[in-house]
Every structure is written in C-alpha cells, then in structure tokens.
C-alpha cells in the first residue's frame, strides 16, 4: 500500500557493483541503481536474464561475491553497505534465496531457533528455549501450510523445489524482517505451491514492513499485488510504474522498454 | 603425576614392546595360560610380531601415516591395576546399557554392569570378560581366527600380550546396548595397552555393541586394540566404535568381521582423539545376501593424525555394501582414508556403493582419500566417489543472511557435516553426548 508519508526503509542511490571471481574483480553488473522503498510497500523488480536483478538482491543482502564500486544504500537510516551480511540480517533485512541451500545435519527447527534467538539477542529480547520455540514455530508453519514433520528434517534436504521455497517463507515468517527481498521465489513453483507461497507472503505484510520481489514473470504478481513495478535492464532500473506495467510487459515483452530506455 | 618418557628409536620402541609381560592384577583375574590352544596362539603371535616388525613408511598401506611420534616412546606393560571409582567414568556411561569396563586393558568387575547377561544364555546374550570364558567353545573356535596376526605386527602384538578382553555371545535379541568401555589412565611411564574383543552372533540374533576407547587423564599411552566379530546366518549387529582417547595417546585398532548368509553388519566408527590413530576394518561376506554398512568419521585438529583403512570383500552372490566415510581436519591435522571394495568372481548381483566426503577447515590441514574398487565379476552394481572441500560458500552466505556470524556459521556447518554420521548411531544417549563433544570442539554453537 502506498503511503507517501510512511517511513523510508531502503534508499538506494546510484549503486554500482562488480562480480568477484576467485578474488579478482571482474565485470560491472550494477551500473547505477536507484530505488526507494517505504514501509507498507510492495515492489516488483522485473527484467530479462542478465539484467542484474538477482545481483541487486544479493548485493543488498551482502553477498561476498560482489564488490560495491559506487553509490549508497541506506537501510532504516544506517549505511547498509558498511554492514556485514549477518549485521544486515540482524538489522531486519531478509533475502529469500532463488536456490535455497541444503544443510544436511542441521534440523530445520534448530536452524530456525538459532536464527530467531540471534535476532532476539540483537533486539535485547529473551531467547526462547526449544519448547517455547516449538509453540511459536507451530503457529508460523501454518503460514506456508507445511507439515510439522518438516521441522525435524535437515534444512531443505530432500525437499522438492516448492517445499524449499515454502521453507524460505517460513524463515521469513519466523524472523519477521522489516524488508524482505524475494529472489525469484516463484521460479520452479507449480500453481498450488505458488498460491501457498503468495498467501504466506501476503499474510506477513503489514504497514511496518515491505517486500521487494525479484521476478521474471508477471504470474506471481497476480497473487502478490505490487504497488510499484520496476524494470531492470543493463544493470539499472530503466522504468518504474504501477502494477499495470507488469501486465504490459507480459503482453508486449521487454524489448519496447529497452528501446525506450 | 608426572610422566617420564625418553625419546628412543623405532627399533628400540619395537624391542621394548616385545618385552611386554603378564601383569599382576587383582586376585582371580589371572589369565592362567592353562589352555594349551591359547598358549600356542600366543607363541605363534610373538614369532609373527618379531618377523613382521613395525611397518615401514614405504609399505603401501602405511605410506600416508606418519608413525614416527609413536616410535619415540618406550612403552611399558601396565604394571599394576589402577583402581577407579564410578565417578571417574560417569561421563562416559550409556544409561541402561550392559557394561564391561576395562582400565588400561584390565577388566574391572566392580565398574561393570552385566545385568542378566552375566548368566550364560539368559535373555539371549552372554557378556563377560574373555578370561572368564577362555574355555568356552565359541572362544576357542573364533578367537584369533580372523584378525590378521599373521600379517600385521600390531594385531600380532595384541594377540601375544592382551591381558583380558570382552566376550559377547548373542543367541537371541539383546534388548540393551552392550557398552565395552576401555579407559586409559596416566601411568608413571608411557604404557602399552592391548584391548581385545570377540563378538559372536548366533543365527537370527540381534544386538548393538558399542566399543568405546576413552582417556581419563592426559598422558602418553599406546592402545593396540583387536576386535573380532562373527555373524552367523541372518544375524544383525549394530557395531559402534568410538575412539576418544586423550590428545597425547596413540591408538592402533584392528577389526575383522565375518558376515554370514543374510546377515546385516552395520558399523559406525568415530575417531576424535589420540595424537596418532589408525583403524583397520575388514569385513568379509561369508554367505549369500550378506549386507555391510559402514559409516565413519574422523574429526581432528592440532597435529593429530587419523587414518582409517577399510576393506569389504564381496565373495558370495547378491551381497550389498554401503559406505560413507567423512574426515574433518582442522589445524595442521592429517586425515587419511583408504577404502577397498573387492568383488570376487563368485559375487554375482553385488550392489555396492562407497562415498568419501571430506572437509578441510584450515589451510595447513591435509586429507588423503583413496577409494579403491576392484571388480572381478560382470554382474555387479558398484559406484564410488570422493570429494574434498572446504565449507561451502553458498551455505556460509545463507547462514550469515539469517543472522549467524561467520565463525558461528562455520562451526554450525562443520558440526552438521559431522552430525550426519553421528545421528546414525542407534543409541540416543550416545548420539546426544557425542554431539556435545563435537559442539565443545566447535565452540560457540548450541543446537
């Protein structure tokens, strides 16, 4: 929901970044990105493969594979780029992974509890013991319609593509971030899983938080309706509009936007 | 107590071991030597030991394993019986288990807990000291029949000099895990300890046996252990081996297993402790449809060396084997894995898989892994593979993006890598205590 008076969560100005390969700086991928996200808003960043949209989400989350070469990013008034990945998470930034990792040997419930308690600590709040946490997580798991048996399994091990994506949203539900970046969370989902994931995200939206969805397709936006749609091309946001822009992209493709830019 | 040790040569070290003699123990626990067959075996073992000597570093099976720290010590036979209290060993105990306790290789009846298993045959299992049962026909039939004391100097030394050991005879279903706890104490001089174990599983029997080697105080000692396991037809054994010796100990272990028709032998072997450790596990299928499952983990740091050599012989049709071995090496530690799987000409329909997965946590650590598959038969399904890697960068970033510090994320991932083996142990309390051991090593993580 757009409310021009609401607090600015994320302010990105002229952000430039290069990919690092084997410790050697390489190709510039982000070439001056601007983005402002206020509390209560839902943004979609769309673009073709290689446009830089996934890189943008990883750079915001602090992925060590990228080096920021210019510009600024401010998150809730703090210099985001000065923070390590874990500090960004503790500050309330969340990235749902395009390719969720499997961690054999760590149970889903242990991961969630350890992560939750880390944030509780950061916020000066009480940690929960395993029993208390179980009550909390059994509530949260309803958000993504997952069976409680998934909690005892190793993180994402043997999960289907859809289950892995739902598991990312479960982490979001438990960690309650201020800003969630969903990196192609819709990719590889069948229609039922897409609906569950979208319902989950919608149920977590409040006037105090915000979501940035990075996606290829308009399909997801039928379920999570964006306030803003941005088109990324060549490492920059080249067009911004309302949700109707997504429909136009679906109908006409990306070429006309790129030509206009 | 300070320990006195002078540096000696490899030759002197071996000579010193050959001087080993029978120990004075508490009354009633002498190995009398009245059994002629055992005297003959011991005499042959001594000859073999003399002839074999320590392996040279050019020996193919030992070329990665630097034994030189072992050779520097003159190990003495254990000269007296160390009296421990239940409190001393409490932290190693498995609640509800049948328990045999050995202190520096000598049986301690007071610390042991035999339950009903002490009375022969009751409840499907007899657990006792080997010396007490030395006249048992099962002991005479199976003792020193497999362990290659003819080819291996360490197995030969053990066969000559063992004082006592565990005898487990399972005729039915053993309800409780059988815990064989070997505790090494610190002596005035570095001591040589010869743990011995014989497990005989009758047809259709079931049991879980935990062989456990622990150190009580940090001291230099040398455990030279031999275990022999016989599974007759359709038996099932879960065999757990935990080596958690103190950091200046030396540990050489040898385990031979004969797996009968339709039987399942499932082993989980863990190496955490000792300055230098070596474990040889050799499992042979003795009949059709036998199944062998081996899980292994070496988790070492500092200057530790841990070597695991396994060999599986598929000699009959439709056998199955599954193996997963993991090494985690930190500091300047050196882990070695060599796993042979041999499919003999008669072993049609063999299904075998072997995987060696390894994690290097420091730039100075080293891991050598060598899976070896030898197939002399067309009708088989075999696969094997090995990976050596560092902590996965994507997993590390994932955890950091969930708020874990880099150090904590690394610890959690190393723990997880080890936990995959630990959780396969069928004794929940042991899984819990070993998980804590690992967590202590990877400090800062609580799960």
Describe this structure as you would to a colleague.
The complex is a heterodimer of chains A (261) and B (447). Chain A is of the alpha/beta class. Chain A has nine helices and twelve strands. Chain A has a six-stranded mixed β-sheet with strand order 6-9-10-3-11-12, sandwiched between helices. In chain A, strands 2-1-4-5 form a four-stranded antiparallel β-sheet. A two-stranded antiparallel sheet of chain A has the order 7-8. In chain A, strand 11 and strand 12 (236-241) form a beta hairpin. In chain A, 48% of the residues are buried. Chain B folds into two domains: 10-287, no CATH class; 392-447, no CATH class. Chain B is built from nine helices and 21 strands. Chain B has helices spanning 10-18, 36-52, 68-71, 86-89, 137-142, 153-161, 393-400, 406-422, 428-441; strands at 76-77, 98-103, 106-107, 125-129, 166-170, 178-184, 191-193, 196-201, 206-215, 221-231, 236-244, 250-259, 264-271, 276-285, 291-300, 305-314, 320-329, 334-343, 350-360, 366-375, 380-389. In chain B, the strands form two sheets. In chain B, strands 1, 4, 5, 7, 8, 10, 12, 14, 16, 18 and 20 form an eleven-stranded mixed β-sheet that branches. A ten-stranded mixed β-sheet of chain B has the order 3-2-6-9-11-13-15-17-19-21, covered by helices on one side. Chain B is globular. Classes of the chains: A alpha/beta (261), B alpha/beta (447). Chains A and B meet through helix 2, strand 7 and helix 3 of A and helix 7 and helix 8 of B.
């Amino acid at each position: 929901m757009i409310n021009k008076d609401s607090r600015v969560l994320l302010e990105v100005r002229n952000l430039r970044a290069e990919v690092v390969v084997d410790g050697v700086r390489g190709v510039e991928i982000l070439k001056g990105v601007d983005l402002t996200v206020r509390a209560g808003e839902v943004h979609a960043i769309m673009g073709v493969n290689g446009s830089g949209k996934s890189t943008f989400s990883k750079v915001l989350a602090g992925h060590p594979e990228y080096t920021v070469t210019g510009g600024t990013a401010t998150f809730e008034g703090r210099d985001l780029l000065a923070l390590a990945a874990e500090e960004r998470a503790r500050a309330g930034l969340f990235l749902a992974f395009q390719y969720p990792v499997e961690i054999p040997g760590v149970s889903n419930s242990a991961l969630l509890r350890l992560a939750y308690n880390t944030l509780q600590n950061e916020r000066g709040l009480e940690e929960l013991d395993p029993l208390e946490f179980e009550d909390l997580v059994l509530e949260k798991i309803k958000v993504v319609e997952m069976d409680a048996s998934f909690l005892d399994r190793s993180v994402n091990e043997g999960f289907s593509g859809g289950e892995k994506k739902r598991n990312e949203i479960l982490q979001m539900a438990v960690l309650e971030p201020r800003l969630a970046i969903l990196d192609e969370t819709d990719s590889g989902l069948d229609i039922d899983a897409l609906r569950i994931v979208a319902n989950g995200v919608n149920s977590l939206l409040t006037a105090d938080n915000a979501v940035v969805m990075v996606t290829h397709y308009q399909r997801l936006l039928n379920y999570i309706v964006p306030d803003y749609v941005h088109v990324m091309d060549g490492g920059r946001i080249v067009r911004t509009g309302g949700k109707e822009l997504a429909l136009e992209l679906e109908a006409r493709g990306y070429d006309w936007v790129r030509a206009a830019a | 107590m300070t320990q006195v040790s002078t540096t000696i040569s490899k030759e002197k070290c071996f000579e010193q071991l050959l001087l080993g003699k029978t120990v004075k123990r508490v009354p009633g626990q002498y190995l009398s030597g009245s059994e002629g067959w055992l005297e003959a075996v011991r005499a042959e073992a001594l000859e073999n030991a003399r002839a074999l000597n320590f392996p040279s570093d050019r020996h193919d099976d030992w070329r990665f394993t630097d034994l030189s720290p072992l050779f520097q010590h003159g190990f003495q036979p254990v000269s007296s019986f160390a009296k421990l209290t239940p409190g001393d060993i409490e932290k190693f105990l498995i609640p509800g288990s049948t328990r045999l306790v050995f202190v520096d290789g000598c049986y301690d009846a007071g610390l042991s807990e035999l339950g009903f298993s002490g009375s022969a045959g009751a409840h499907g299992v007899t657990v006792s000291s080997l010396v007490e049962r030395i006249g048992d026909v099962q002991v005479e039939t199976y003792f020193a029949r497999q362990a290659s004391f003819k080819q291996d100097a360490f197995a030969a030394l053990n066969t000559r000099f063992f004082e006592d050991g565990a005898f487990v005879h399972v005729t039915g279903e053993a309800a409780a895990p059988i815990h064989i706890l070997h505790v090494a104490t610190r002596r005035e001089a570095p001591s040589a300890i010869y743990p011995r174990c014989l497990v005989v599983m009758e047809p259709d029997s079931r049991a879980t046996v935990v062989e456990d080697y622990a150190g009580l105080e940090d001291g230099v000692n040398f455990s030279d252990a031999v275990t022999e396991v016989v599974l007759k037809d359709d038996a099932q054994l879960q065999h757990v081996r935990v080596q958690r010796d103190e950091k200046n100990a030396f540990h050489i272990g040898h385990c031979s297993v004969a797996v009968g028709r339709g039987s399942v032998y499932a082993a989980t072997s863990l190496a955490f402790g000792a300055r230098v450790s070596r474990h040889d596990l050799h499992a042979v299928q003795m009949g059709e449809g036998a199944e062998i499952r081996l899980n292994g983990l070496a988790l070492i740091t500092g200057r530790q060396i841990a070597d695991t050599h396994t060999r599986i012989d598929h000699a009959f049709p439709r056998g199955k084997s599954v193996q997963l071995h993991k090494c985690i090496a930190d500091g300047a530690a050196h882990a070695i894995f060599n796993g042979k799987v041999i499919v003999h000409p008669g072993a049609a329909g063999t299904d075998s898989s072997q995987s060696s997965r390894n994690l290097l946590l420091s730039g100075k650590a080293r891991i050598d892994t060598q899976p070896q598959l030898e197939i002399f038969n067309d009708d088989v399904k075999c696969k094997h593979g090995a990976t050596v890697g560092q902590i996965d960068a994507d997993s590390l970033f994932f955890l950091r993006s969930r708020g874990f510090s880099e150090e904590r994320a690394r610890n959690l991932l190393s723990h997880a890598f080890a936990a995959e083996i630990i959780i396969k142990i069928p004794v929940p309390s042991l899984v819990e205590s070993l998980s804590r051991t690992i967590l202590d090593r990877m400090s800062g993580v609580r799960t």
